[in-house]
Amino acid sequence: MFKKTLTLAVAATALTVAAPALAQDTGATIGFVGGLTGPIESLAPPILAGAQLAVTQVNEQGGILGGELSMISADSACDATGGATAADKVINTDNVVAVVGGLCTGETIGAFNGSGLSGGVVFVSPASSAPALTTLEDNDLVYRTTPSDALQGVKMAELLLAKGVNDIAITYVNNDYGKGFADALAAAYEAGGGTVAANIAHEEGKADYRAELGNLVASQNLVILAYANASGNTVLRQAVESGNFTTYVGGDGMVGDDLLTGIDAAAVEGLIATRAGAPTGEAVDIYNAFTGEGFTANATYAPQAYDAAFLLALAIEKAGSTDRAGIAAALRDVASAPGEKILPGEWAKAKELIAAGTDIDYEGAGGALDFDEAGDVDGIIVELAVEGGSFVEKGVIQ
User: Fold this and answer.
1) What are the start-end ranges of the H helices in 263-301?
2) Residue 5 binned pLDDT confidence (cut-offs 50, 70, 90)
3) Helices in 63-218 by DSSP H: which ranges?
4) CA gap 250, 177 in Å, rounded
5) 102 with 83: CB under 8 angstroms?
6) For 170-222, what is each residue's pLDDT tens digit?
7) How many CA atoms lie within 13 A of 92 on its CB side?
8) How far does the signal peptide extend, from start to end residue (predicted)?
């Protein structure tokens, strides 16, 4: 995503002391915290649109607690300090009752430790995949609708070995996401018989990574665990220019068309990537038929964002008020069995069942959401490849 070990010293930012949430007579307001600018800025808009679609559907089907559901967004720039500042705004100024977010793991931890913990605010992240979130000491307030990179690393290792890629060089962005992913990948890859010829961190925001690339040439198979809008693009472009690598691999943060900006698409044809996916079934089919402004059903983490917002709405309705503690307590009830199945978009049905005192169990666009003790979910990882200058999903990694 046990939650007993990790603490984060948020950079010296003056944050106001969390005040009690102001109860709303009708309706409810949630927050969205995420990197709308910075290294994932091309990935963030479809994620926000996924969450907003859930909010729109709630309001089109009768609203929440006798009023409307609103969502206030705040940019945290994929950064811990930015996360703390954004959370301070939405929690202590806008008085949101729950938060969708963050997106990058560092901003989620910064946001929660900055104002979420003291305010008793439940967070549901659609995209924070670093294993560090699993061990966050959070009083059972932080959840995620995407699987941990502990799984993605294993599945990437299995995929590469199945393709006959028997040695790799890894470079990862030096943050919770990059290191956690790299550690999981390296451990699983070596356990499967592969050789990690090099495993080197790189810092975000540099213009030149040629020195780092020079230390990675022990393998021609380069794995880049970074962000499409930032170091991921620069490292990939300079790796192509070097001519030292023949196979390129990326994780979920690399899956965006901006990754290929300034790069000859033919040079990276067949680039392998992985990200969280969704199982087949009625819930996913229903979700994939949705339309909305700025909404792309299969965009990276859009299904998980939809699920995060829809789940929070269900928890608010189940709690019967905008009391933050009540919402946090209700979240597991609406997400897990036993209960009558609620599928994406079935807000009116859910409201009716909740009003009748019937247990519900939401089955999401990204799959089942049976949270474990740490607030993590199982999930599936899919393979993608660059074909003709775009990412194409190839299927579930078995």
Assistant:
1) 282-288
2) very low
3) 80-88, 105-111, 117-119, 149-162, 176-191, 210-214
4) 13
5) yes
6) 999 999 999 999 999 999 999 999 999 999 999 999 999 999 999 999 999 99
7) 20
8) 1-23
Q: Which residue is listed with tokens 């190839």?
A: 394
What is the structure's pLDDT at 257?
85
CATH topology of 28-146+281-335 equal to that of 149-269?
yes
Does 22 score more than 80 pLDDT? no
Distance, in Å, from the CA atom of 387 to the CA atom of 396, rounded to the nearest integer, reads 17
With helix as H, strand as E and coil as C, how does 6-46 read? ECCCCCCCCCCCCCCCCCCCCCEEEEEEECCCCCCCCCHHH
The token pair at 143 is: 């959840």
Q: Output the pLDDT for position 23.
A: 55
Sign of CA dihedral 322, 325, 327, 333: negative
- In angstroms, the CA 274 to CA 160 distance is 11
| Rounded-to-integer distance, Cα 113 and Cα 88, Å | 10
Which one, of 375, 307, 315, 377, lies nearest residue 350 by Cα? Answer: 315
CB atoms within 10 A of CB 82: 26
Q: Give buried/exposed letters for 341-378 (b at 16+ CB in 10 A, else e).
A: ebbbbbbeebbebbeeeeebbbbbbbbbbebeebbbbe
pLDDT tens track for 350-362: 999 999 999 999 9
The number of residues in the chain equals 398
Which among 387, 393, 383 has a CA at the least distance from the CA of 163? 383
Tokens at 81, concatenated: 């300090």
The domain 28-146+281-335 having CATH identifier 3.40.190.10: the answer here is no
| Closest residue by Cα to residue 342 from 358, 324, 319, 322 | 358
Q: Look at residues 80, 77, 146, 161 and name the one whose alpha carbon lies nearest to residue 116.
A: 80
Measure the CA–CA gap between 334 and 116, rounded to whole angstroms: 21
Q: What is the pLDDT of residue 190?
A: 98
Domain assignments of the chain as residue spans, ordered by start:
28-146+281-335, 149-269
CA separation for the pair 341, 363 (Å, rounded): 7
Q: Name the architecture of domain 149-269.
A: 3-Layer(aba) Sandwich (3.40)
Cα gap 370→175, rounded to integer Å: 28
